[in-house]
Design a protein that fits this description.
about 70% helix; Farnesyl Diphosphate Synthase; mainly alpha; 15 helices; homodimer; about 300 residues
């Protein structure tokens, strides 16, 4: 498969997930109007949809049910979107731009942005507990994995550590612990949810897939730090160089730019090696890993 | 059963739920320290635990599994607690006192309060998707009912309508729609979750129980409005008379105090009548309904 082929697949999947998100979000014009309008604003029309792509690519390994993958992809993306809305609030990062448009609290107001985040999180669990057409045991495992990845031992916990780390000298292991929770946990959950939509894997295969997930979750954050250090506001679509301005510890501030780039490449190699066991079925996952590490936006 | 007997039962259940909440919340002293400390501060050591009591009383109707009811009770209370933490934030009601102590954003800070609410909501779904020892279908139904009650068509939607209603002239049906979502939905969910922990009820019995739940959910809010109008800060433990000060429409502002009290009593009578079909098994639910309407705190 060529790069062109991957780009075509990713574009098709991005269009598809946009369609599914549009269908699954509260309809425009339904009460409460402003809340539902703002929920759609927060989710639709932007983003690379990396987590949904991971759900589909992971599901491809085990012949997963397309309808169940759609719901899993939506649920993971809603959790991601809610975290961005809350993260942008004045009491957190106080960001005014996101994906090239005003953040939710700027476009609407703070109270609405708070409720948008709350409601998007709930919607993720509402959809994932609806009719999926797969076994109840797998469905409960999906719900549990998503909740564990999102909560105080996962994403929310990572945000709390991030908050406490501003201006602090973190060690590399501490930085890694923060990112495993803040970004890594949800990326890992996306891959777990994709897998749970399909045929059960052997313990060995599951372990390999989960190792891939952990490597790629960490690589994602390392690349983010590299991009933040390198990028201009124009290409990133959000206020760039903010980490340094906010005195936040990053892989770049701790290791330097060159070493951070090298770490991303090592994590990518480790991730790709653990896909060998799956042969051709892991081609999308492998291409996605390369895309995540080499992305420039 | 006497009033003394009910008070004894309620006190025992309140002590029990406090113990279960203490066990199920993230342990004190585990990372991230400040977040976990604040999550425990937000939930423990206060509150009437009306929603957990409703779970247990509803479960008593259908011989529900005690262990499953514990988790359901915790999940519903965590959703309630998260909504209070976010509702108290400066961009919402800007309350500084709750249950006789400083609100979370006052005791900690706004960013922590935001993450506390986020994490408590996630924890509710994490616990409810764990091992409950009941059938997977009933468990998924519990998750779905709790999510529907909490989201943009339920509690969060009610908050959004509440927000938009400040200074607005609402009609009585509009006020009712707001409260059905804001308070009623979660109370109704508590009763549904208790039922789902036990033997399946007939359609007729389920409908009667759900009618009870709807009446009592609305009565709860009417009584809240009456108490807000009557109470002093000292007895309520929060800043009282705030509704009027904030120019929020209430049952009292729309109907007058006397009519609002009468409405609460009518709803109580309607609720109690629909319990007749259950005989003695509904005694706790019936006593709880009377407690909710006659409470003075």
């Amino acid at each position: 498969m060529t790069q062109t082929d991957f780009t075509h697949w990713a574009n098709q999947q991005q269009l598809h997930i946009e369609q599914v998100l549009t269908q699954r979000l509260p309809k425009a014009g339904t009460a409460p109007l402003r809340l539902h309008d703002a929920m759609r604003y927060a989710v639709l029309g932007g983003g690379k949809r990396v987590r949904p792509l991971l759900v589909y690519a992971s599901g491809a390994i085990c012949n997963a049910q397309p309808a169940a993958m759609d719901v899993a992809a939506v649920a993971v993306e809603l959790i991601h979107a809610y975290s961005l809305v809350h993260d942008d609030l004045p009491c957190m990062d106080n960001d005014v731009m996101r994906r090239g448009k005003p953040t939710v609290h700027v476009e609407y107001d703070e109270a609405t942005a708070l409720l948008v985040g709350d409601g998007l999180q709930t919607l993720a669990f509402e959809l994932l507990s609806g009719e999926l057409g797969i076994g109840g045991k797998a469905q409960l495992a999906m719900l549990h994995a998503l909740a564990q990845a999102s909560g105080s031992h996962g994403m929310v916990g990572g945000q709390a550590i991030d908050l406490a780390s501003v201006g602090q000298a973190l060690s590399l292991p501490e930085l890694e612990q923060m990112h495993i929770r803040k970004t890594g946990a949800l990326i890992r959950a996306a891959i777990t949810l994709g897998r749970l939509c399909g045929n059960t894997l052997s313990d060995e295969h599951s372990a390999k897939l989960d190792h891939f997930a952990k490597c790629i979750g960490l690589a994602f954050q390392v690349v983010d730090d590299v991009l933040d250090a390198e990028a201009s506001s124009a290409t990133l679509g959000k206020t760039a160089g903010k980490d340094a301005a906010n005195d936040k510890p990053t892989y770049v501030s701790l290791m330097g730019l060159k070493q951070a780039r090298q770490l991303a490449q090592e994590l990518e190699a480790d991730a790709l090696a653990s896909l060998a066991i799956f042969g051709d079925k892991a081609q999308r996952l492998s291409q996605l890993a390369q895309f995540i590490v080499s992305r420039s936006f």
